[in-house]
Amino acid sequence: MHGIVFWNENFVQTFWENDFKNDTEKLVSSLYTWQDARTDITFLSKLPKPHSHLNTYSGYGCNTIFWLKENQPEILNNFKHCGTIQDLVVSILCNQGKPIMSTHNAASWGYFDVIDCSWNTDILIEANFPVHLLPSVVQPGINVGTLYETIYQIPKGIVVGVALGDLQCSVIATLTTMTDAIINISTSAQVAFITKTIETQYDGIEYFPYFDNHFLAVAASLNGGNVIDFFVRSVLSWISALGLTITEDELWNRLLHLSTEEHLTTLIVNPLIFSERHDPTTFGSLINITNNNFTLPEIFSGFCKGMVNNLLKMMPREILLKAGIQRIIGSGSVITRNHIIKKEIEHCFNLPLSVKMPEDSAFGVALALLKNNPYLFN
Fold it and tell me: How wide is the angle at C-alpha 11 spanned by C-alphas 10 and 12, nearest 5°?
């Protein structure tokens, strides 16, 4: 959703002419993902403030363009179009020239006013931003073309919808009512619920465009299952440094078994290993270490509980109650496999928790397209 790739029309045509068998290096750029950290705090501080209720962060598409304009202008000079990687796929499928982007992806690039459904053109032009590169933007669920030729037994002429945000699609596939919120923990972690309005902004909450003129209130943490993996890998490296061996699977099993009992400990783990977008200078810490609580089970439990408490800090329970949330849907492999995290969600948010495996985002795409094209599935 935040990433960006640049291309020329010949790249799209090359797919249909020879299935990319010729050299396409000069027709398409590398993909710059949300993990591209070159747009650091110092660089971002030089950029103009966007006219939007959404902030922009490192790795966002428009900020990446700003960085390339200053440091690698030849990239921008060599290409005529840009979009997210899924926008490029849609352009290829339809054999279209200028790409068309959904509000989901535009809002994830920054410098996009969701209310007016428009780029911050005036602000960007004043900053010498190459606005001619920006895609046209439409509402999610809109059809943008048809399949150019039959491919993989999918018939020519079938409707192709605009590319959608993976977060929004995973939510629409999972939530069935506006009284439910979702907590998803996989590599990263999110707490989200559907709302009709944008409320007062909290540091950790942002309101992204959803479907049917609704918004998705999201507390998106960079610290999810990745911090638990970080801890486990650290323990593995310590064991290896001592000349001992244990498999990663066995270590996971032992840690979860050692931590089956509740640990009423004074040890506090703030596992912000990867900081947060809204607070990029704050990292993790261990607090109140004593000669009694610095044990492996308590540290592991502390990482698990600290991750959930960080989500609670970003999305306070009061916000959920004010929005009318009555239940939490827990999804993601981390919740389904880790009993400590499941119990901590129940304890911290104090709402009924229903845990299930998440639906695939592709299923959410089908649901969104079905709303606009019910005849497709008759």
Answer: 90
Higher pLDDT, 372 or 268: 268
- 377 pLDDT above the threshold of 60: no
Amino acid letter, 265: T
**Cα radius of gyration rounded to whole Å, the chain:** 23
Structure tokens at 334: 């981390």
**In angstroms, rounded to a whole number, what is the distance separating the alpha carbons of residues 370 and 364?**
10
Q: How far apart are CA 42 and CA 276, in angstroms?
A: 16
Cα(205)–Cα(55) distance, rounded to whole angstroms?
11
Q: What pLDDT score does 353 carry?
A: 95
Model confidence band, residue 10 (pLDDT cutoffs 50, 70, 90): confident
**Which has more pLDDT, 126 or 23?**
126
Say how far residue 172 (Cα) sits from the centre of its chain: 15
Six token digits for residue 122: 């005036």
Q: Which two tokens stand for residue 2?
A: 């935040």
pTM of the prediction?
0.84
Q: Give the burial string for 44-54 (b: 16+ CB within 10 Å, else e).
A: beebeebbbeb
